[in-house]
Specification:
With 696 residues, the protein is α/β, with parallel strands linked by helices. The chain has 23 helices and 25 strands. The protein has an 8-stranded mixed sheet with strand order 20-19-18-21-22-23-24-25, sandwiched between helices. Strands 2-10-15-14-13-11-12 form a 7-stranded mixed sheet, sandwiched between helices. GO terms for molecular function: Atg12 activating enzyme activity; Atg8 activating enzyme activity.
Length: 696
């Protein structure tokens, strides 16, 4: 029995030939819905990863229901296992009479070279052996869908969204071949009464939600033309009842005298399990109403060899031209460019998780909201690096406009952004982030940050109070706050707000050839477990090393002091370290309470997959050095001490306004004034570590 495509079939039907003649099966074809490839991409990235182990899948088909086109086996989204780790049995799918499931195996490779090197004859033999075992054991009579096992080999290039694949439908070959004594349309084969009974029995059987067992069945016709449908396992019982028993199968073929491919293995079952040499087969096809089409469903009278020999199986799907080869799908050309960009961005991170970082929490990164205070050299670099880590919610805050000198150092701006007095920095940065990656939710906020040492006049007071409230709302709405502004005093209010709200705060500051990247410690007013070891050893903030309050650092500046003059390579280094520190902290089980690590050697081990968790990183570009430093919180800190945070909680914006207008207020409040006076008088200072820990 050879395999031919529908276009090359010999047509014969009606009447009985002079002698039995070989007949040909119509080769089965497979197709894959777009939803299957999208699901396969997710399955590969999230579940299968680097493994090339075979995967149990399901294909779906229905009987041919139009004379001009055959029915194909289809792969759909539901063809793949629904949950990670589900790969040890058939896939359970809801019953649908037009989508009958048959089991298959997917061999998806990691490279096109592996795909091309697959031993396809061996894979086909292995699948055919399973069918043969199912026939001999009787499992195929219990579940006749096992006779239609199929294979899919594929290579998914998820960078380009292209898929190379090929179907195989293993068919058992016996020698000598089966022959057909006759082939007639069912309307001619059955008497009028039999036809009515067959139609009723088939309709009843077709409506049963029995899943895979529906694909073939027996029609038991009694001498008085009563017809009942039975399962294959009832063959011998049906023979003893004395009627006419016809094997029926859902036929995907549309040709009048050529049955579909599933019949091949059904004949093997009949030969091996039932020992028959003569068999009548109804090729069940439907009309558009979903009922048996008696006119277009042939009935074959088949003669089987008494002692067949079994040869190498056949079944690899041929190309449209009848040759060997693979199919190719390019979804990249038809996908929404935004969705394509999102998939490509996720791909980089998922590949990282495959090999090096299984604990990478991509959903958490995607949901983390980051507030960047400053959209200059540091802010631009931090924003771009955050996107590469999978952060999708970024808010940039800056008061300035893009200057002509900015685009060279600030990677989110172009020359056009600086023309006509320049675009608002924060808004232009957010817009350009979306141009780089449309999937990011970027927002620009133009506002100034109220700063100590910058007094507020009475006519400015309402606007400043509004800025204080807006700044508090922004800090509360975000998970991580990056302090990336040009001046020291502009970091004071955000530091206070982060300490009050117990937010992750990452600070990056630049000198000419030095940088500081640090994380602030937790709030000094943790409501729960405030006596824990983590709370007692609270890490310091950017202001904890100061013994004076932050003042106006912009007054009386020369041109070089008005600009941030640093070596051009410094900002990208500091920005990258700031983002890496934030990502590591987000993955640490203690979060903002994570203790500081000191290890700096390449041989140091850490239990955390992203490495050590430092408090401060200080870099010196002049001699390419870097130090990991730890600094504990200062109980007289003007920004994060419990005294300052408590005062803010009690007085709110009025407290901040007093700080802005009274240069020495913070020093008086925290005790720094007294401390400095004692120092000036030459008094001895005794640092009581236990007292300091208690105050913390």
């Amino acid at each position: 029995m050879g395999i031919t495509s529908p276009a090359g079939e010999d047509r014969h039907g009606g009447g009985e030939p002079a002698e039995p003649m070989p007949f040909k099966f119509v080769a089965w074809g497979g197709s894959a819905d777009v939803s299957f490839w999208h699901r396969l991409a997710d399955f590969k990235l999230d579940t299968q990863k680097l493994t090339e182990e075979p995967v149990n899948i399901s294909g779906f088909f229905a009987p041919c229901n139009q004379p001009h086109a055959p029915s194909y086996l289809q792969l759909m989204m539901e063809s793949l296992p629904p949950d990670p780790g589900v790969n040890d049995g058939p896939i359970e799918v809801p019953y649908n009479r037009n989508r009958l499931p048959v089991p298959g195996t997917l061999h998806n490779t990691n490279t096109v070279e592996t795909y091309n090197a697959l031993d396809k004859p061996a894979l086909l033999r292995s699948a055919a052996d399973k069918i043969w075992d199912d026939i001999k054991s009787g499992r195929a009579e219990e579940d006749c869908s096992l006779l239609s096992r199929f294979l899919v080999v594929s290579y998914a290039d998820l960078k380009k969204w292209t898929f190379t694949y090929r179907f195989a439908f293993p068919g058992l070959r016996m020698s000598p071949q089966a022959t057909a004594a006759s082939c007639q349309p069912a309307c001619d084969f059955f008497t009028k009464d039999e036809a009515a009974g067959v139609l009723a029995a088939c309709t009843e059987w077709r409506a049963l939600p029995s899943g895979a067992s529906l694909t073939s069945f027996l029609l038991n016709i009694t001498p008085d033309a009563k017809v009942k449908a039975q399962s294959l396992k009832e063959w011998h019982d049906a023979q003893h009842e004395g009627g006419k028993v016809i094997l029926a199968f859902y036929d995907p073929s549309n040709l009048p005298a050529n049955p579909g491919w599933p019949l091949r293995n059904l004949l093997a079952l009949a030969s091996v399990r039932w020992g028959v040499t003569r068999l009548q087969v109804l090729c069940y096809r439907e009309n558009r109403s979903g009922l048996l089409d008696l006119e277009h469903s042939p009935v074959l009278d088949i003669i089987l060899p008494e002692t067949p020999e079994w040869k190498e199986p056949v079944g690899w799907e041929l190309t449209a031209r009848g040759g060997k080869g693979s199919k190719f799908v390019d979804l990249g050309q038809s996908m929404d460019p935004v969705k394509l960009a999102e998939s490509a961005a996720d791909l980089n991170l998922k590949l990282m998780r495959w090999r090096l970082l299984p604990s990478l929490d991509l959903p958490r990164m995607a949901s983390t909201k980051c507030l960047l205070l400053g959209a200059g050299t540091l802010g631009c670099q931090v924003a771009r690096t955050l996107m590469a880590w999978g952060v999708r919610h970024i808010t940039l805050l800056d008061y300035g406009r893009v200057a002509l000198s900015n685009p060279l150092r600030q990677s989110l701006f172009t020359h056009e952004d600086s023309l006509n007095n320049g675009k608002v920095k924060a808004e232009a940065a957010a817009e350009n982030l979306k141009r780089i990656f449309p999937g990011v939710n970027a927002t620009g906020v133009q506002m100034s940050i109220p700063m100590p040492g910058h007094p507020v006049s009475s006519n400015e007071e309402a606007g400043v109070l509004n800025d204080i409230q807006r700044m508090k709302e922004l800090v509360d709405e975000h998970d991580v706050v990056f302090l990336l502004t040009d001046t020291r005093e502009s970091r004071w209010l955000p530091t206070l707000l982060c300490a009050d709200a117990n937010k992750v705060a990452i600070n990056a500051a630049l000198g000419f050839d030095t940088y500081l990247v640090m994380r602030h410690g937790a709030s000094p007013l943790l409501d729960s477990d405030s006596t824990s070891d983590e709370a007692k050893s609270r890490l310091g903030c950017y202001f904890c090393n100061d013994v004076v309050a932050p003042l106006d650092s912009t007054a009386n500046r020369t041109l070089d002091q008005q600009c941030t003059v640093t070596r051009p390579g410094l900002a990208p280094i500091a920005a990258a370290l700031a983002v890496e520190l934030a990502v590591a902290l987000l993955h640490h089980p203690l979060g903002v309470l994570a203790p500081a690590d000191q290890g700096t050697s390449l041989t140091d081990n850490t239990e955390h997959p992203l490495g050590i968790m430092p408090h401060q990183v200080r870099g010196f570009i002049a001699h390419y050095g870097q130090l990991v430093v730890t600094g504990q919180a200062f109980d007289k800190c003007t920004a994060c001490s419990s005294t300052v945070v408590n005062e803010f909680r009690e007085r709110g914006s009025d407290f901040v306004l007093e700080v802005l207008n009274r240069p020495n207020y913070l020093e008086d409040l925290t005790g720094l004034t007294e401390l400095l006076a004692a120092t000036d008088e030459g008094g001895d200072l005794v640092w009581d570590d236990e007292l300091e820990d208690t105050d913390l």
